Automatic annotation (TrEMBL):
Cleaved signal peptide residues: 1-22
GO-annotated molecular function: aspartic-type endopeptidase activity
Taxon lineage: Eukaryota, Viridiplantae, Streptophyta, Embryophyta, Tracheophyta
Pfam families: TAXi_N (PF14543)
Name listed for the protein in its UniProt record: Peptidase A1 domain-containing protein
Organism whose genome encodes this protein: Fraxinus pennsylvanica
UniProt keyword terms in alphabetical order: Signal
Residues annotated as domain Peptidase A1: 44-210
Length: 210
């Protein structure tokens, strides 16, 4: 079921993609991210920059996952903020309950944090992590402030292309990147995914193509 849904989405995405090309949309008309293919795993991934230090993150694209999550093991950022549990924001991101951490505080290890449940499609497992927010930067000069995401433990990255440390979920949720971009920039909630050949570079257009 899941895999047939995925192929349907890919079909739709390719279709939308050609109409975007025809309209020749300027990149400023939405958030644009690159897409590459990892040939070994056939996974498509994008490259994001996150936080005040603009840490580069390769994230596998999953049309069925709820939000962005990545390993924060070497992540530092002065604009990183955990989302407190029992807060309005926690309710908005549909977190439930509180998660803590018994080590020294760092991104991905804070007390009284709103629980996120990142889903690994490779293992078919949901994990418990804390929700956080930080700024996402794109190469076409868009900044998405306070983008909700969760950290994830490096050792749980089973099945991922080795170049990737996380996942960009593009499902129809309140906190997927396209919904966040639509809300924050008053753009239409739509995206197009132009997937590349083995060696090419494709693009995701988010909120553009008016
Ligand atoms: C969380 O609280 C416990 C108990 O007060 C404390 O030992 C621990 O260091 C705290 N963790 C963080 C990340 O602040």
């Amino acid at each position: 079921m899941a895999s047939s849904l995925h192929s349907l989405y890919f079909f739709l995405a390719i279709f939308i993609c050609s109409s975007v090309h025809a309209a020749n949309v300027p990149p400023s008309n939405g958030l644009v991210l690159p897409v590459k293919k990892n040939v070994k795993t056939s996974q498509y991934y994008t490259t994001l920059e996150m936080g005040s230090n603009r840490v580069t993150i390769n994230a596998v694209i999953d049309l069925g996952s709820q939000f962005l999550w990545f390993s924060c093991d070497s992540y530092t950022s002065s604009t990183y903020n955990p989302i407190p549990c029992e807060s309005q924001k926690c309710e908005k991101v549909k977190g439930f309950g509180c998660i803590g951490c018994n080590q020294a505080p760092r991104p991905g290890c804070t007390n009284d944090t709103c629980i996120a449940s990142p889903y690994s499609p490779f293992e078919n497992l949901l994990y418990s992590e804390g929700f956080a927010e930080d700024t996402l930067y794109s190469k076409n000069n868009m900044k998405v402030f306070e983008l909700p995401f969760s950290c994830f433990h490096l050792e749980h990255l089973t099945g991922f292309a080795s170049i990737a440390i996380g996942m960009l979920g593009l499902a129809r949720t309140e906190i997927s990147l396209h919904k966040q971009v639509a809300d924050k920039f008053e753009l239409p909630d739509k995206f197009a995914l132009c997937i590349p050949s083995d060696k090419g570079v494709g693009k995701i257009f988010i909120g553009g193509g008016k």
